[in-house]
């Protein structure tokens, strides 16, 4: 999955440090993209996480970042109820990454139409939607199996000849 473009507009109140707020918004969004697309963790029978590092647990990487990533901070009016009129900038943008999950669902729906797969246009897509899940939902696993069967059939025919 490649994210071509993301445009975020975030109200950070009266920013105490715009550079820090910008970094927090960008980082939280990328973390959220990782959560929605590739942070699939395994658990044992007791429900405990068994992943022991990045060899078995995939975190966001540079490839996770949208190719075009536009972030704009809006400074809202002063508010006496907030510390120096500022707002939190780390956690809320994480949830904006749900838009990536929704966009992936629409891309899968379009792929199903394009490939004319015998698949319904409504489907269950869990979180995280890993690369393997997306391929299967698009119907690409069927294409790969078909190509493998052609290769196997050609190999069998070559052996018989």
From TrEMBL:
GO MF terms, alphabetically ordered: iron ion binding; oxidoreductase activity
Entry-linked InterPro entries: Ald_Oxase/xanthine_DH-like (IPR016208), AldOxase/xan_DH_MoCoBD2 (IPR046867), AldOxase/xan_DH_Mopterin-bd_sf (IPR037165)
Which residues are in the Aldehyde oxidase/xanthine dehydrogenase second molybdopterin binding domain? 1-66
* Name the record gives this protein: Aldehyde oxidase/xanthine dehydrogenase second molybdopterin binding domain-containing protein
Q: What is the lineage of its organism?
A: Eukaryota, Viridiplantae, Streptophyta, Embryophyta, Tracheophyta
